[in-house]
Amino acid sequence: MIPSYALFALTACGLVTAAAQQPTVQITDGTVVGFTNNSIDNFLGIPYADTPERLRPPQRLSSPFGTLNGTAIPASCPQHPLIVDPEVFTQLPPEVSGPLLSSAIPPSVVSEDCLNLIIQRPSSTTPDSKLPVLFWIYGGGFATGSSVPYDYSTLIQESVALGQPMLVVRVNYRVGAFGFLPGKELQNDGSTNLGLRDQRLALEWVSENIAAFGGDPDKVTIWGESAGSLSVMYHALINNGNSTYRGKPLFRGGIMDSGAVFPAEAVDSPTAQGFFDNFSAAAGCGSEDALTCLRELPYEEFLNATAVIPGLFGPEAFRISFTPRPDPTDDFFPLSPEKAVQQRKIAPIPFLSGNQEDEGTMFALPLLNDTTSPLLVKQLKGLFHTAADDILERMISFYPTDPAAGSPFDTGSANELYPGFKRNSAVLGDLVFQFQKRASYIALDGLVPIWDYLSKYNKVDFLGTMHGSDLTLLQTQQPALPYKAVVQYYVNFINSLDPNVDIHGKYGKKLPHWPKWDKDERLSIYFLDNATVVAPDDDRKDAFEYFFGVQSELLF
């Protein structure tokens, strides 16, 4: 299989032969010309906003674009390298470090003029098809990412084979300091959480334009992985749960892969303000009007200053600095997301949601020196800046030092990459992913339907079923059994809002019934390498019960 980025590169070089009659779509802003490959129409780089002004909210297209060549690689948004301290990873076994370092290659085409999207559809689609729409939001810790690498041609082909065809939209949005720089300066200017605002404007564009591509604007499902998964939840929380645009909901369902909420300090909190002040100083904008200075700064100087803000895999190890932060002066995102969930200020849509079993292994890799409980507490203090030491000490006390109890789970004493690795992995996986998800489910119990899953199909040394395994599953179609199950459940949900039921009202072929999650039984679907089974969502009960009581003390 040609990787998606390679396919787009070949297309841009003219090496992929387009059909004699290229697919062409007329919308209000102009004509979009795409290309067809393997019975899938592709339209690349469609602008959904004007060229963004740096550190300002996105604006709707103000003038037509004429005829757009939708066959060229679109620009990705500027971003600092995901791994800024590769030396740490060179200390790891090559079979662990190699794939991670290669996956951190930055996009080849980058520009601040990056607010564009990609549309893929079956080549048989007509303007009257009214296909359900899957709106994809990439991950990357709100610091990196691009729509370009994700080719969903095979997923669309599978939907056609299942008799439930669909259309996919992939959105680009600003990341890092360009999209999520916090601080009172941005708050006073009405320019907070810009990357999230980009996504929202793209959803509004879809509402207005997707019918011309054969999609149904009343049947939009938003889907994301990691930061994209968090974004799905956040769109259901934006404007205190009001998801309407021009009198209609922007979306009717959500699929969340590895991310529920990141409880966060306010956009003008001391922690967040410290990020802004350090960034401004590094950029040479420590003046009274730092915001104007940053907006006028040469691109490279602005980008390079990002290095002073701790990243996902920086010298400080695992950090989450760029994330949507509550801005109580603006109804767009006024509450920390766990608070909004607890107050049930959410759009009433169904969710299909879950995690990989070993979410924490990848993020524990740089913690080579954190081999004791005091060192782990210190590391967590850098992640949850205002958490009291006694809370963190109590939290990790639920995790045995015995490697057999750690992550990758169910691997006995194997895979202890360094002393404490499996314990560190278990703690990070739970505090950042597993427990945030379960706490959100409890808060929303009885309000919105939720189907939960856990992926347990990878046997990768040291990493297990790691963060991002679901993306690899869709790209490689391996292992075959969980791949087929995931695709069928997802396609059913996108079409009928129930993973068990296709648009004809029939249960999925040879798949177990997937029960809704509720706080009493807490049942999930487990995707194994050789089976799909129903099992309870009750791992590490005692640790979760303590976490549930202190969730709002653990703020990023």
UniProtKB/TrEMBL annotation:
InterPro entries: AB_hydrolase_fold, CarbesteraseB, Carboxylesterase_B_AS, Type-B_Carboxylest/Lipase
EC number, as in UniProt: 3.1.1.-
Residue ranges annotated for the Carboxylesterase type B domain, each copy included: 21-522
Protein name: Carboxylic ester hydrolase
Family: Belongs to the type-B carboxylesterase/lipase family.
Residues making up the signal peptide according to the UniProt record: 1-18
Species of the source: Clonostachys rhizophaga
Keyword 4Fe-4S attached: no
Keywords: Hydrolase, Signal
Keyword Signal belongs to the record: yes
MF (Gene Ontology): hydrolase activity
Domain of life: Eukaryota
Enzyme class: hydrolase
